[in-house]
Amino acid sequence: MSTPAWILDIFAALMLVVAAVGAARLVVLRPWRLGRAAVIADIDVSHLLMAIAMAGMLAAGLRTLPNDAWAVVFGVLTAWFAYHVAQDARREGSRALAGGHCAPHLVHAGAMLYMFLALTAPAARGGSGMAGMGASGIQTLSLPVLAFLFALVLIGYSVWDLDQVSGPGARPHYSLAIPRPAPAAVLVGVSAGVQAVQGAEPSGAQAVVPAREGGVAMVAQPGVTDQAASCAIPVSLTGTSPVLVPWVATACRIAMGVTMAFMLLIMI
Amino acid sequence: MSDIAVGSSRAGWRARSVPEAGAARAAPDARRLLQLALAGVWLLDGVLQYQPFMFTRAFGQMLGATAAGNTGVVASPINWDARLVEHHTVALNAIFATIQLLLALGIAWRPTVRLALGASIAWSLGVWWFGEGLGGVLNGSADPVNGAPGAVIIYALLAVLLWPTDRGGRPAPFTAARAVGVPVARALWLVLWLSLAYFALLPANRAPQALNSMIAGMESGEPGWLAAIDRGAASLVAHQGLAASIVLAVALVIIAVGVFLPPPAARATLVLAIVVAAVIWVIGEAFGAILAGGATDPNTGPLLILLALVYWPLGTTSAEPGPARARQEEIPA
Predict the structure, then answer these.
(1) Would you say B53 and B59 are in contact if contact means Cβ atoms under 8 Å apart?
(2) Cβ distance B241 to B276 under 8 Å?
C-alpha cells in the first residue's frame, strides 16, 4: 500500500494553486515588457514550472512532460540559480549561501532535478511523468541520503520563511502588507500602454520603472526596494496588485518546500 | 530596453538595495532560533508520518507492541488505541500526520507560537503513552542507545523550556532557564541524563551481547554505507556489553552534572552531550531509521543535541532581558 491517493491529490491541488498564482503574477507583471530586466520574474517562472511538475508527480492525471524533459528544465533552473548564488556569494560572502535570497530557489531547483534523475521505478523510464505516486505503489529514489538532506534543507527554509513572514519588522520581501508606490511615483498617461521612460536614467539611488497600462510609473528608492533584487521582484514593481505582494511568492515557496519534502521522504 | 530605467539588470537593483538589507530587521534571538529548530523537527515528524508504511496495519501493530511488559493500567489504553488505529488506519494516521504538520507550522508562525507549543506538549504526552508505551521506562526495556526515554517526551520538554516567557529580572545563564528558571531547568536536565545513565546499566542493556545485537539489528533496510557502519560498531562492542554500558553511563553522568559547573566546564560537557547524542543517532538509531523508510520520527539523537543547545551558556549580551530582545522575539501574548 502507498500513501492514499486522496492525500497525494490534496498536495497536487495545492501545487496547482501555486502554479496558478505563479502564472497570475507573471501575467500581471508582464516581464516580457521589461527587456533585460525581465530576469526578475525568474522566481515566478520557476514556481510555475516546479508546481506543474510536482502536480504531475503527485497525480497521474496531471502529467505533462516526460521525465527527461523535466530533468533538462530543472537542470537549467539549477544552473541559473547557482550562477546567481555564486554572484551573491562573491559580493556578500558565505552569508549569501545560507541566507541569500537565491539560495532557497537553488535548493528547490536542485531537489527537483534530483527527483527526476533519481527515480528508480521502471515506470520512470521513458514515461511521461511518474505514473502518479498513488497509482501503483510508491516509487523510490536512489541515493536516499540525498533525498533526506534535501528534505532537511527544504524544511529548514520553510520554517525560516514562515517565521520571517510572520515576524515584526519583516523585510519588504516578507512583508504581509501591500506595498505602496513610492511617494515620488509619477502618474503617466492612463492608456499609454507600454511606456519606456525615455532618458530617465536612474540618478543616485533612484530608479524609474515603466508604467503599466493604466498604471503608474514608480521611482524605486532605497527605502522601498526589496532587500535582494536578485531572485525577486523589487517591491517598487509590485504596485498595489494583490497578487504581486511580496509575501505571496514566499507563501508559494513555503507550500512548495513542504510538498517537496513530503515527496522526497515518502519516496525514500 | 535599456532605456527603461529599472536598472536594466538585476545587478543594478542589487547594488542599490543591498545596503538596506541588514538594517531592516534584527536576526531572531537564540530562543527563537531554537523554537524554529523544534518546528523543523515537528515538520520532519509530520512529513514522516505520511510515509506509505504508516498507512498500513503494521503501524497499529507497531503501536500495540509498545504495550508489552507494561502494567495493565498503562498497557490497556495502548492496546485500545492500537486496535483503533488498525481499524481506521488511513483516517487516523492522516489526522496524526496533519496535527504534527500544524504543530510545526504553528510554532514557526509567530502569532500562534504559544498555542502550538502548548498543544505540542499535550500531543507529545499523549503519543508518549499511546504511541511509545512511555518509552519503555516502566517495563525495563528503555535503552538510551536506541531511543529512551522516548523521542516524543523530549519534544514536550523542549516546548516547556522554549516557552516564550521570561522569569525574573535577572539575565538567564542559558536559554532553558528563561522560561522555568535556573533551578528547575537544571533539575530537568539532571533527571533526564541521570535516567539515561540508569537505563544504560539495566540488566537487559549491560548483557554481553545486548549492545551488539541492538546495533546489528539496525542494519536491516539501511543503505550499504550505514549498514557497514553499524556492522563495524556492532563488532566493536561484541561481548563487551558491560564495559560499554559502564563507559556510556559514566559519560551520561558527567553530562548530567555539567550544567552545574562554571560556563567553560559546562560548555565542555555540553559538547560531550552533543557528541554522545550524535553517536547514538548515527550508530544506535541509524538516523532514526529514516533511510530505511519506516521511521515515525528522527528519534532522540537530534532532540538531545537541540536540548544541549538550549542549555548552552549565553553571553552577557544575549542573556540580558530587555526591550531589544523583546523586539526580536515579538511573540504576541
Answers:
(1) yes
(2) no
d(CA A11, CA A255): 9
CB A67 within 8 A of CB A119: yes
Q: Are strands A207-208 and A219-220 parallel, antiparallel or unpaired?
A: antiparallel
Angle at A159 (CA atoms; ends A104, A77), nearest 5 degrees: 15
Q: Kindly state the helix (H) or strand (E) to which residue A220 belongs, with its residue range.
A: strand A219-220
Q: List, as one string, the DSSP characters of B245-311.
A: HHHHHHHHHHHHHHTTS-HHHHHHHHHHHHHHHHHIIIIISTGGGGGGT--SS--HHHHHHHHHHHT
- Distance from B330 to chain A by nearest Cα, in Å? 7
In the chain, the amino acid numbered A144 is: P
Contacts of A171 in chain B (CB under 8 A): 21, 24-25
Q: How many CB atoms within 10 Å of residue B323?
A: 7
Identify which of A216, A234, A236 has the alpha carbon closest to the alpha carbon of residue A42.
A234
Instruction: Read off the pLDDT of residues A107-128 as tens digits, 9 standing for 90 and up.
Output: 999 999 999 999 875 444 444 4
Measured distance CA(A86)–CA(A74) in Å, rounded: 18
The one-letter amino acid at A22: G
Query: How much is the pTM?
Result: 0.83
- The pLDDT value recorded for residue B331 is 58
**In sequence order, what are the beta bridge partners of A211?**
A195
Interface of A with B in 92-131 (CB under 8 A): 92
Instruction: Please give the angle made by the CA atoms of B48, B277 and B281, to the nearest 5 degrees.
Output: 40
CA distance A198 to A217: 12
Backbone angles phi, psi at A241, to 5 degrees: -75, 120
Burial A136-165 (b: 16+ CB within 10 A, else e): eebbbbeebebbbebbbbbbbbbbbbbbbb
pLDDT at A50 over 90: yes
Neighbours of A36 (CB within 10 A): 15
Interface of A with B in 53-72 (CB under 8 A): none
| Percentage helix, strand, coil for chain A under 3-state DSSP, each rounded to 5 | 60, 5, 35
The upper half-sphere exposure of residue A11, i.e. CA atoms within 13 Å in the direction of its Cβ, equals 30
* Rg (alpha carbons) of chain A, rounded to whole number: 20
Distance CA B265, CA A71 (A): 52
d(CA A98, CA B300): 26
Nearest-angstrom CA–CA distance, B67 and B74: 7
Cis peptide leading into residue B149 (ω within 30°): yes
Contact residues on chain B for A208, CB-CB shorter than 8 A: 5-6
Quickly list H helices, chain B: 10-21, 30-49, 57-65, 72-87, 89-108, 113-130, 151-161, 175-180, 182-200, 203-206, 210-216, 224-236, 241-258, 263-279, 300-310, 316-319, 323-329
Q: What is the predicted ipTM? A: 0.86
Instruction: Give the cell for residue B199.
Output: 537505563
Average pLDDT on B161-177 reads: 89
Task: Supply A106's cell numbers.
Answer: 537553488
Contact B8 A152 (CB under 8 A): no
pLDDT band at A228 (very low <50, low <70, confident <90, very high): very low
